[in-house]
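Sequence, structure tokens quoted for completeness.
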Amino acid sequence: MSRTALISIICEDRIGLIAEVTGRLFDLGINLGDTTFAVLGGAAEFTAVIELPDHLSLGSIESELSELPALKGAKISVAPFSYRAQHGDTAHITHRIEIEGEDSPGLVARLSEVFVGFGANIVRLNSERVSGGSGARYITRIAAWIPPEKAKACVATVANTAGELRLTCKTQAV
């Protein structure tokens, strides 16, 4: 019998971090479910829904992870996961959207509202500041589930919203 838990790690970003963490989890007999990793400034965030054998406690997993050299000084949390371990249909990505341009405060909020209006679900979102010849630019990447019957209108509205903010928008159906 297995239990479901959520591992959340925030630490300094370094090469080999994912290999070290997932290697230890594998050695402990832990099966990974949905997993995300992101670099956030100079930090890294690793989150995973896991299935763990009965003989392991949440505290013992946290202890095992805190012993890893790559996680020295990390904030590590292992907690029960009371939601479904597998996502539903609206978490399957149907479209990838990339918006790029100068800083536009409120962009994520405005775009989020567009998706809600079409009954679409943002599955993943990544926004980053990149240096360029004319100063800082922002790239926002969205992976979304959009109902098929509303996809064309939703994508057009997202592109129009980006255009109003003088940003470029690229979309791709998956």
About this structure: The two ends are 36 Å apart (CA to CA).
